[in-house]
Structure formats: C-alpha cells, structure tokens
Design goal:
Strand order of the largest sheet: 1-2-3-4-5
Distance between the termini: 28 Å
Number of strands: 5
Largest sheet: 5 strands, antiparallel
Order of helices and strands: HEEEEEHH
Structural class: alpha+beta
Oligomer: single chain
CATH architecture: Alpha-Beta Complex
Helix content: 25-40%
Radius of gyration: 13 Å
Shape: globular
Strand content: 25-35%
Number of domains: 1
CATH topology: Aspartate Aminotransferase, domain 1
Number of helices: 3
CATH class: Alpha Beta
C-alpha cells in the first residue's frame, strides 16, 4: 500500500469522525493517532487510526460490545476490536461509520 492510499483512507476516516463529532481530537500515540472526545482529558480515547505497510487499522477500545451484524470487526481481545482497511472503498464496505458512531 502506498502512502497516498494510506493517507486517503485516514482522511476518509477523519471525515466521517468529524461529521459525527466535530470536536473530536486526534492525539499522536502508540505510533498512530487516537481519537479523544473529552477536551479536558488526553487519556480517555475511544480508539485509534494506525497505518501499517499493507493496511490501515481503525481500532476501537470497546469494540467487543459493538453491534457487528456482518462480522467486519477483527480481534479476540477482551475489549478491543479493529477494522483492517486496504482501500478507500473498504471504509464504506466495512461500515466504518457504523462503528465510529458506536464508539463516539
């Protein structure tokens, strides 16, 4: 995956997040950016966006409790789940908006 595709995926995610919660903040953490909703607390975040060589991971701190009728979320941890996004189209087809709404 090239940087242009990765950047386009991240931009698409941020566009959706900004529509849901216009005052969402992005903090550099863990090699990516976490989504912080509380303007007074940088330690509370609902998930993050992380770019890897072959995909962008949209991760959710409490994704294990999300409604996921199509089984798009991956992960087996106690709380966290993630979406692996390989193309900008994946942002739509894997229903990132549904999960961002649940997270936010």
């Amino acid at each position: 995956m090239g940087k242009d595709i990765s950047d386009a995926i991240v931009d698409a995610i941020k566009d959706i997040a900004g529509q849901i919660k216009p005052d969402v903040r992005y903090l550099s953490k863990y090699g990516g950016e976490v989504l912080a909703l509380d303007p007074d607390d940088d330690k509370k975040f609902v998930g993050g966006i992380f770019s890897y060589k072959d995909h962008v991971s949209l991760e959710f701190s409490n994704g294990a409790v999300f409604d996921d009728p199509d089984g798009h979320l991956e992960g087996k941890g106690k709380s966290r789940r993630h979406l692996k996004l390989y193309t900008v189209d994946d942002v739509v087809t894997k229903d990132a908006e549904r999960f961002l709404k649940q997270a936010m």
